[in-house]
Amino acid sequence: MRTGVWLMGVRGSVATTSIVGALALRAGLTGPTGCVTELPELRGPALPAFTDLVVGGHDVAATPLTKRAEALAAAGVLPGRLVDALTDELAGVEEALRPAPVGGTQAERAAAVVHDLTDFRRRHGLDRVVVVNVSATEPAAVPHPAHLDPTALRDALAGPEEVLPASSLYAYAAFTAGCPYVDFTPSTGARLPALAALAAERGLPYAGNDGKTGETLVKSVLAPMFAMRHLAVRSWSGVNLLGGGDGATLAEPAANAAKVSSKQRVLAETLGYVPQGGTRIEHVEELGDFKTAWDLVTFAGFLGTGMRMEFTWHGCDSALAAPLVLDLARLTAAAHAAGRRGPLAELAFFFKDPLDARSHGLAEQWVTLRDFVAELHFGSADDQAR
Predict the structure, then answer these.
(1) What are the coiled-coil residue ranges (predicted)?
(2) In the chain, which segments carry CATH 3.30.360.10?
(3) b/e map of 30-50 (b: 16 or more CB within 10 Å)?
(4) pLDDT value for 149
(5) Per-residue pLDDT tens for 297-308?
(6) pLDDT for the residue numbered 244
(7) How far from 25 is each of 89, 248, 343, CA to CA, in Å?
(8) Contact status, residue 270 vs residue 264, Cβ threshold 8 Å
(9) Any residues with CB less than 8 A from the CB of 280 and at least 6 apart, and which?
């Protein structure tokens, strides 16, 4: 099942790491550490193989992919040996990258994206293309037309006003082109009634939002522990220090607010109440593509005895996110092939603020994901038998 992976923000750190990883896996130069879909419980015939993935994408930046990979190698994110070994392959991917459309009406920009997606699918003989948003986080206050239906939205996009934020315009273009959509950011994306209706009309699945790679991943394990042990969490405060482009983007108050809102949801919905404290995000340029999170949890046990827990998480965001991007592309492609449409709640395991989530606890999300993938493999085996 030849599958296209079209990355919004394709020259960014996460996208570049995803591309180098996909190429290295295809060439047998690395193992699949971090790729959830390669665990024995999930691996199977319904998922496109790494050798079947073809990458393209849009970006407003023009830095050559090889230069971005070399910079990430110098920063300690990528092994330099892989970048050197994959120079020709990276140059081949470069040919599939396109500048993000700018100027004109939003309808014209959407049409340009549709053209690029359709052309990409045709030129590479792809069965389907999954669009994945790994671009910068949008401000929380970006307005969007929650009241419009698909027809009214199409008409509005042809006017002079900016109707949709960029992530939603890409979701609109993806659905128009017949492509599933995944939002790895906390941006609005497909979370609008008109876009949900358009996805249903076109028979397309979509997933999101905001990849769960660090501090929130730990919260999704620890918060259920406190709840199941009937311990009272009094406060939960966190400080996140980020470098790189993501840190610079989140230094903007509106984008920062969108990210913090996404990170906090797991506590309220797992514990059933909101403990005192919050999450603070700061940009520390010196950290480069790495991030550090420090959390302090205070809680009370039997007879009101006060206790505390502290943990520190230090990791490379791109190396944590990239395998999940590949996982989500494979899973969403398989869901599309199986005829799934609408929000893929079963992929909540991967997100801080998942669509239609039934649970925010990682263990429960894992069971849901495992059962979902088993159904996909069962259906795929049936198809092959017929």
Answers:
(1) none
(2) 215-315
(3) eebebbbbbeeebebebbbeb
(4) 85
(5) 999 999 999 999
(6) 74
(7) 12, 31, 29
(8) no
(9) 238, 239, 240, 260
Q: What's at 276, amino acid-wise?
A: Q
Q: Which fold has domain 215-315?
A: Dihydrodipicolinate Reductase; domain 2 (3.30.360)
pLDDT at residue number 242: 87
Q: Could you say which residues of the chain have pLDDT below 50?
A: none
- Give pLDDT, residue 181: 98
pLDDT, residue 198, reads: 95
Which token pair is 251?
């230094």
> Residue 41 carries which side chain, given as an amino acid letter?
E
Tokens of 384: 């092959």
Question: CA distances (Å), 329 to each of 94, 322, 338, 381, in order?
Answer: 19, 11, 14, 20
> What DSSP character marks residue 38?
G
> In the structure encoding, which two tokens stand for residue 283, read together?
């940009």
Q: Are 131 and 179 spatial neighbours (Cβ–Cβ below 8 Å)?
A: yes
Query: Which whole-number Å values give the CA distances from 374 to 37, 149, 325, 368, in the listed order?
Result: 12, 35, 20, 10
Distance CA 340, CA 324 (A): 20
At 217, list the tokens.
């991943």
Contacts of 181 (CB under 8 A, 6+ apart): 130, 131, 132, 133, 170, 171, 174, 175, 189, 190, 199, 204, 206, 207
- Which regions of the chain carry the CATH code 3.40.50.720? 3-211+319-385
Closest CA to 315 of 191, 213, 167, 196: 213
Q: Element (H or E) spanning 243, and its range?
A: none
